[in-house]
Amino acid sequence: MLPSESRLRRREDFATAVRRGRRAGRPLLVVHLRSGNTDPHTPGGNAPQVRAGFVVSKAVGGAVVRNRVKRRLRHLVRDRLDQLPAGSLVVVRALPGAGEADHDQLARDLDTALQRLLGGAPRSNPPGGAPRNPGHPGGSAQ
User: Which E.C. number(s) belong to this protein (predicted)?
Assistant: First the structure.
């Protein structure tokens, strides 16, 4: 279980992670990461805690399915908290396919998204072989 002090609970914290953080999408989930605590007035000498929150809508499935997905995601994120910068806010949003996915599929998508957000994995070329052009709104060379 994810420790209580590591959970996002306030609406403002979710909004900060989603609006001001970076995003990495995968087929089963989207991960939003707001790295580190930028508040110089944080009390105490300890590094701020990494906190995570989860969004699992009715599009994922019924209540039983949504709760199962949340439990799996909490367990997966708990094991990865030490990989994240101190004071980070993480929001994991489950997409409709997450309800049918097993634990390993969710873990694979979460790991890939976190690697992308933390700069560990370069983005590959899209299918079709055309290299990405970040300056073009469509994302590929014309």
Answer: 3.1.26.5
The answer to whether residue 60 sits within a structural domain is yes
**Portion of the chain with pLDDT greater than 90, in percent:** 68
pLDDT, average across residues 60-87: 94
CB distance 118 to 111 below 8 Å? no
d(CA 78, CA 84): 11
Let me know if residue 114 belongs to a domain: yes
Distance (Å, whole) CA 78 – CA 142 = 43
Dihedral of the alpha carbons of 99, 17, 117, 65, in degrees to the nearest 10 = -10
SS3 assignment for 119-139 = CCCCCCCCCCCCCECCCCCCC
Question: Could you give the count of Cα atoms lying within 13 Å of 137 in the half-sphere of its Cβ?
Answer: 0
Residue 130, in any domain of the structure: no
CA-CA-CA-CA torsion for 126, 117, 15, 6, nearest 10 degrees?
A: 140
Domain count, the chain: 1
Which residue range(s) make up the domain with 73? 4-38+47-118
Euclidean distance between CA atoms 52 and 70, whole angstroms: 12
Nearest 5°: phi and psi at 141? -70, 140
